[in-house]
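Forgive a beginner's question, but would it be possible to get any protein sequence you like and the tokens describing how it folds?
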Amino acid sequence: MEVCRPKVDAFVLHWLQSEPLRRSDFWEDRNGNCRIVSSLAIKLCETSDTWRRLVAPVAESVAQEICSSTSKPTKSKLTRQLIATRLTQRNKREVKGSDVLEGRQPKPEHVCSGCGKPIKAERNHCANCAIEGATERLVNAARIGRVAARTPEVLAKQADSQRRHSRARSSWDKSSQPAWLTPELFSQKIQPLLAQMSSSAIARQISVSRWYAGRIREGYRPHPRHREALAGLVGITGADQRD
């Protein structure tokens, strides 16, 4: 067992560091000793085949050395008597030219960190426990976002953006709006097509935030100065209306 003890210890240490252990995996006897339950003991016993494969070559090598030191001299002193290798089938494999199989490192059962239910390796929680964790992460993200939105840099940026849009609204001349681009046309033809566009595309087209662009997608009527640019985004032009 000593020959594979480092790998056994590494396996157990990796299990303790990477996988949670459930409360139901242990019990305490009347003397205060902590024991593992049968189900966990069975899982540990299932790894014995791996350790057997690791010990087998060493056991056969020791047996070969003992046999060589006690066997009778052969016709040729250079000839070494071979013993049966039933553990690894090394003799048969060498004759066939194949490699001796090595033991595979066992993997501990991957379980949910919340309830201990077996789950896929790429996940940390089961479906039920993930809901609670996702809700907590959203609350934390919202809290971080609110704090970040109150920093002097962000507030200064918001004030600058508001002043820029205010100047654009006050300097906009209604007479610059094309005659064909009426409020009715925008509501009946352009607005439905905007619902099919992405918020990013709308935001880039009229230089607004994605939040404001999302409101436009939902049916909010933006300032009239944006109508011509939004009409061009959905492919509606004055030539189409004249036709």
